[in-house]
Amino acid sequence: MANMMEEFEALLEESFEMDTPQEGSVVKGKVIAIEAGQAIIDVGYKMEGRVELKEFADPGEAPKIDVGDEVEVFLRQVESSRGEAVISREMARREEAWDRLEKAYADEERVEGAIFGRVKGGFTVDLGGAVAFLPGSQVDVRPVRDAGPLMGLKQPFQILKMDRRRGNIVVSRRAILEESRAEQRAEVIGNLSEGQTVDGVVKNITEYGAFVDLGGVDGLLHVTDMAWRRVNHPSEILSIGETIKVQVIKINKETHRISLGMKQLQEDPWDLVGAKYPLDSVHTGRVTNITDYGAFVELEAGVEGLVHVSEMSWTKKNVHPGKIVSTSQEVEVMVLEIDSAKRRVSLGLKQTMRNPWEVFAETHPEGTEVEGEVKNITEFGLFVGLDGDIDGMVHLSDLSWDQRGEEAIQDYRKGDVVQAVVSEVDVEKERISLSIKAVGGDKFAEAVGGVKRGSIVTVTVTAIEDGGIEVEYEGMKSFIRRSDLSRDRAEQRPERFSVGDKVDVRVTNVDSKARRLGVSIKAREIAEEKEAVEQYGSSDSGASLGDILGAALNKGDN
């Protein structure tokens, strides 16, 4: 009997375990009534429970539930204090969803969902019962400013990461779009070929070019391929939304990058450059760009030449090109060189004007007197500003006849206006030599122009000194030493002369370089004695020196 009772209890307990569902599991039930915003569901086993109608609604939609419908619910508790089962449709959907999503994640399949809320850093997505996080960077291939049109819309997503234990799911809409876009790009690119002309819509403009939509795939139209002429910014000739014709220049099959061109559909102006712009011809152009090394001048649309800084001015050697020309300025230039292979034209600005050194040489031959301002003072001379914005140099040796150059230059200051004489013009070396001391002529040369060594001239005594006397001839000073004052030693006394005395002297030396005239009374007396002896006899004839000199003097008196 005892054994039978134990078996009965075991069977009864097993029956209870089979008939009563386990808490925390999903069970099937039937809607038997809808009242007060709730659905009353019979889950069997003589148990009923209530579920809010909103748990049967998808985000943004009305509840989809009617009496008689069979639904799955999550049994949270077999019996509450009211004697009802505690059930949840939402939790059942979540459990169901997690099973489905884990399988999709493992198989790398897409899942369907709807964005229903905004949170920090992104959005929340309902994946049919499970809530996932959609980062802002994964919404679209480009930043989305307004996500309103995407809210509540059922669409595919890719699961990036999921953790059931923590209840975390991260999804991406961008991955779906990129995959679709890649397929579309591959199809469009497959229909394109290099050299083909197609229509496109300007989608975006940057500093370096524009992105053109070719019908599902973008191509880059670089700024250098927009026109043959220089384009500073693509917005000069393009606007977003504009439809343009472009040529496919290059297609990279691996990266799916497409290079486009507009200028390739136009005639290349360089084909006619050689004929239109012969060497040494002069043309008017517009300055388009200025750099440290020169200025670019546009001769026509698509044809630019460089005026190197060395070809900009005859006189301004170390000046930035921006000090000589300005952007958009119309200038006359000369064609110096054409390299069609490299598409380069060398231009000259200064060649359109005459060389100022040539002009100066023509208008100011050597010996011409000029006037100018002292521009600079150096250790070797002065630089004087002249006509034509050029400078001439006065060397130290050309500052004064009487002073050493180092002393004479101390008398000059920048800004002084000076008179000078052109002594040399070297056009090739662009050098002009001037002389300040030559202004008014060379007094020494004029004074001694007809005087030679041995000449007898008359000088005026200007000063008496212990060592001799100072005399003057035609404004030129000379000094006669005591030993040269007389042939007779007794007469070699300076004091026997007076200032203002006129004295005949013999020229012993003419030093043009040192500008000195050497004179001597003694040399004159010796020369006169020699001449008298030759004319009137010699001491061998018996005549005394006194007789000879007396005869010479008498002849001179007659």
From TrEMBL:
SUPFAM superfamilies referenced in this protein's UniProt entry, alphabetically: Nucleic acid-binding proteins
UniProt GO cellular component terms: ribosome
Domain S1 motif: 24-90, 108-174, 195-263, 280-350, 367-437, 454-522
Annotated keywords: Repeat, Ribonucleoprotein, Ribosomal protein, RNA-binding
InterPro entries noted in UniProt: NA-bd_OB-fold, Ribos_protein_bS1-like, Ribosomal_bS1, Ribosomal_protein_S1-like, S1_domain
Function: Binds mRNA; thus facilitating recognition of the initiation point. It is needed to translate mRNA with a short Shine-Dalgarno (SD) purine-rich sequence.
Entry's family note: Belongs to the bacterial ribosomal protein bS1 family.
NCBIfam families reported in the protein's UniProt record: PRK06299.1-2, PRK06299.1-5, rpsA
Protein name: 30S ribosomal protein S1
